[in-house]
Structures are given as structure tokens and as C-alpha cells.
Design a protein that fits this description.
Elements lengths: L1 E8 L3 H12 L6 E5 L14 H4 L12 H6 L2 E5 L3 E5 L4 E4 L4 E9 L3 E3 L12 E3 L3 H10 L5 E5 L3 H12 L3 E5 L12 H13 L3 E3 L4 E7 L2 E7 L4 E3 L2 E4 L3 E3 L2 H5 L4 E2 L1 E3 L11 E3 L4 E5 L5 E3 L4 H15 L11 E6 L2 E7 L6 E7 L4 E8 L2 E8 L2 H12 L6 H5 L10
Parallel strand pairs: 1-2, 1-6, 2-3, 6-19, 8-15, 9-10, 9-15, 10-11, 18-20
Antiparallel strand pairs: 4-5, 5-6, 7-16, 12-13, 13-14, 17-18, 20-21, 22-23, 23-26, 24-25, 25-26
The protein binds flavin-adenine dinucleotide.
The site of flavin-adenine dinucleotide has 35 residues, from helix 1, strand 2, helix 8 and strand 22.
Length: 407
């Protein structure tokens, strides 16, 4: 049995960054990354953006070139899925029967795309957007597709819709709630994006009630709504979130449920086992200390650094400010902070000009900003979020007053 001083499960953003951070912090022990995907770690955000549109090749998505991992002596054990963890013996097992030992284990399994729980979900032509393989399958089918139905009006669904409408496909977005982006953003942002997509020709349906997916000879042919309408579709894209990939850890006894619980430096309830990235359920100071999972590159990278330092004896609690972005059409959205629990929303600038910000306050304090084509607000607003600044809504709304003067 091979044993590594640090064994990382998951060759995604968080897993890759953990290895990079350990070497940056001069960790000299052995490191290996076990990943179920066959690829070296790559960036996931372009999957629904520049990779789907063909503007970036896969090589440009790699987080580091192959030579980097060899030079840093990070062993890559790819195409291997971890199926159990034996926390007492400090070892784990993969689906192909290998057993690998560890001094410390960093679990960075991210999540698997949630499948739609309805009849027809197994038909071919039904896709999720989580991995390179998912997008390759979509790209291979696209030439034979005229009509696409996207289930879920979250960021990934909307980004895919923006790309596919540009390809000349007929695109419908089905959102179960009464506005898109309802889980992550305030109403002004939702209404703006709904209008943008409609202006580009996307049929955005709100309060949509899905009945089932229909097919012919194993291939999807349409989406049936509860009111009996059938939307013809040769491709269906399901963007309804992820299920955290933590089963082996929970089965080993780690505390958790929706993800695995970690403390302020990423430790799980199992000895010498850490968790980072999308699958880590942590108390976040920007959410009033609530236990949440964040699905963002920022969170994956910053948690990786926290754990790397913790392994080297530097106890620096995770308290990085959350940030996020989304590209749709010529719109660059940049978000800082978490709008969870906001009680006031201020719109700064004019959405009609396609450059504006939505500012979220909780009890008078600025807690988050969504900035659309408004990089200055994003940069300057960050200080307001970090400082928990109290500011007058009238001043925040006045685009002639730079946000930095309010900090
Ligand atoms: P992942 O990157 O998902 O990596 C986890 C890896 O672990 C995967 O390769 C998985 O196969 C592997 N794994 C899981 N279980 C096992 C197991 N048992 N054994 C071995 N390997 C396992 N974030 C942003 O900040 N901005 C964006 O614009 C943005 N856009 C996105 C667009 C798309 C289409 C997607 C899918 C995500 C996007 N995100 C975006 C989110 C961001 O990509 C994730 O937050 C980030 O990838 C999380 O990193 P992670 O390492 O935790 O998980």
C-alpha cells in the first residue's frame, strides 16, 4: 500500500489549489491527488461560457500545465474514484480496488450535478453541465439540435442559454420560481436578466411546472409541462444545482448532511481529515455565521490555503470575503459578499444603460453587491462589504458619488 503525507481527493479547483498552496508554503512531504475525472485539474467556470462557445480550447482551461505537477512532485492518480475512507486506519479505497494510505486527508470532492427527478431524465439528449465530458457530449450533439430547453434559471442555465441562442438555436428556459436567479440575487437583478434573455430571443418561462421529459427511441423529443403543453426539444440541459460528493466521508462517520461539516480551519469531525470547496459546510462570517456551502472558485481557492496553512501549524480561520462572477452576452456580472438575509435593496445606476449595481443591506449595513458592467463599483464596494459599512441608501443609489467615499 502506498502512503502519502497528504492525500487529496478531487482533482478540481480546491484539490489543485490545496497542493499548490502546500508547496507554496514550503511543505516538503509527499502529496498525491486522486481524481475520478481523467483530466488534470481544469477550470470549471468556462464550461458554460467560453468552452461551450468554442472561444477557449481545453488546454487553456488547465489550472496548471502537466509539467507543473511533476516539477512540484504532486502525484496525480486520475480516473480513480474513492469509494470508502477508513479514518481509523488512515487509508482509503478506490473503485478499482487500490488502497492508499495518508497522514492527512483533504477531501475536495465538489459535487455532482443534480439530476431531474422526473420520467424521461435518463433519455439521451438530456445533459448537465459539470465536467468536460458533459460539455463534449453536448458539443457533439449540437449540430443536430434546433430546439433546446434549459431547466433551471440559475447562473449555469442562463449562461448556457446565452451561448446557445448565439448559435442560432431556439432556446427556452424553464424556471420553477417566479424569477430567475431567485436563490442568489435580488429581484432587480433577476428582472434585468430575464429582460436581457428575452431581448436576445430566449423564451423565459417563470413559475414553470414540469411534468416529464418525452422521448422517441431513447432520445429526448420534448418537455411536457403540467398544463399539458409540450415544448419540442432535441436537447435538454438540466441546471438545478449540485449534490455534494461526500458519501464516503459521511459513511466513515464524518458529521454532515448537505456537505461535510468543517471548523474554521477546514477540519472535519474525523481525525486528520479536512474538507474544502463546494462540499465543505462551514460557518461563514459573511452569512452571520450560518453554516453554508459556497460554490465558487474564490471559496475553493481560499479554503485550500486555509487548510494548507493549518497543516503547517498556522491556525488562520477562514474569513475570506466571498466573490463570484458570471458572463452572459456582453454582460459581466461581479458579485462581492453574500446577500443572504438582506432587508433592503438599492439599485445604483440605470439598468437600461446596461451598467449598474444592486446593493444589499442588512440592518443598515452593506452586505453584498451585484455589479453588472460596473467594475468600479465592484472594486470599491468590496471595502464596504468587508467593513460592514453603514451607508445611506440615497447616497449608495447616487452613481455620481464614488463608493470609496462612503467606506
Ligand atoms: P470541483 O471543481 O467540482 O472538483 C471536484 C472534483 O472531485 C471533481 O473532479 C470530481 O469528479 C472529483 N470527485 C468527486 N468525488 C470523488 C471521489 N469519490 N473520488 C475521486 N474524485 C472525486 N464559480 C465561480 O466562482 N464563477 C463562475 O463563473 C462559475 N461558473 C461555473 C460554471 C459551471 C458550468 C460550473 C459547473 C461551475 C461554476 N462555478 C463558478 C463553480 C466553481 O466551478 C466551483 O465552485 C469549483 O469548481 C469548486 O471546486 P471544487 O474543487 O470544490 O469542486
Amino acid at each position: 500500500m502506498k502512503t502519502f503525507d497528504v492525500l487529496i481527493v478531487g482533482a478540481g479547483h480546491a484539490g489543485a489549489q490545496a497542493a499548490i498552496a502546500l508547496r507554496q508554503q514550503k511543505f516538503t512531504g509527499t502529496i498525491a491527488i486522486v481524481g475520478e475525472e481523467p483530466e488534470l485539474p481544469y477550470e470549471r467556470p468556462p464550461l458554460s461560457k467560453e468552452y461551450l462557445s468554442g472561444d477557449k480550447t481545453f488546454e487553456r482551461l488547465l489550472i496548471r500545465p502537466a509539467a507543473f505537477w511533476a516539477e512540484r512532485e504532486v502525484e496525480m492518480l486520475l480516473g480513480q474514484r474513492v469509494v470508502y475512507v477508513d479514518a481509523e486506519q488512515h487509508r482509503l479505497g478506490t473503485a478499482d480496488g487500490s488502497v492508499i494510505g495518508y497522514g492527512a486527508l483533504i477531501w475536495a470532492g465538489g459535487g455532482h450535478a443534480r439530476r431531474i427527478p422526473c420520467v424521461g431524465s435518463e433519455l439521451s439528449g438530456v445533459h448537465t453541465v459539470r465536467s468536460r465530458a458533459d460539455v463534449e457530449r453536448m458539443l457533439a450533439e449540437l449540430p443536430g439540435v434546433d430546439q433546446v430547453v434549459v431547466i433551471g434559471g440559475g447562473y449555469i442555465g442562463l449562461e448556457a442559454a446565452a451561448v446557445l441562442i448565439k448559435f442560432g438555436k431556439q432556446v427556452t428556459v424553464l424556471e420553477a420560481q417566479d424569477r430567475v436567479l431567485a436563490r442568489v440575487a435580488g429581484e432587480p437583478l433577476s428582472r434585468f436578466y430575464e429582460a436581457e434573455h428575452r431581448a436576445h430571443g430566449v423564451d423565459v418561462r417563470l413559475n414553470a411546472r414540469l411534468e416529464c421529459l418525452e422521448g422517441e427511441q431513447g432520445q429526448v423529443s420534448g418537455v411536457r409541462l403540467a398544463d399539458g403543453e409540450v415544448l419540442a426539444a432535441q436537447m435538454v440541459i438540466v441546471g438545478i444545482g449540485i449534490v455534494p460528493a461526500v458519501e464516503p466521508l459521511l459513511a466513515a462517520g464524518a458529521q454532515g448532511g448537505n456537505g461535510v461539516e468543517v471548523d474554521e480551519v477546514g477540519r472535519t469531525s474525523l481525525a486528520d481529515v479536512y474538507a474544502i470547496g463546494d462540499c465543505a459546510l462551514h460557518r461563514n462570517g459573511f452569512a452571520e455565521g450560518a453554516a453554508i456551502r459556497l460554490e465558487s472558485v474564490q471559496n475553493a481557492n481560499d479554503m485550500a490555503m486555509t487548510v494548507a496553512k493549518s497543516l503547517l501549524g498556522q491556525h488562520e480561520p477562514y474569513q475570506a470575503v466571498p466573490w463570484f462572477w458570471s458572463n452572459q452576452y456582453d454582460l459581466r456580472l461581479q458579485t462581492v459578499g453574500l446577500s443572504i438575509g438582506h432587508d433592503q435593496v438599492v439599485v445604483r445606476g440605470d439598468p437600461a444603460q446596461r451598467s449598474f449595481s444592486v446593493i444589499y443591506l442588512r440592518q443598515g449595513q452593506v452586505i453584498a453587491l451585484d455589479c453588472v458592467n460596473a467594475a468600479k463599483d465592484y472594486v470599491q464596494g468590496r471595502a464596504l462589504v468587508v467593513g460592514g459599512t453603514r451607508a445611506e441608501p440615497v447616497a449608495l443609489a447616487d452613481a455620481s458619488i464614488p463608493l470609496k467615499t462612503l467606506a
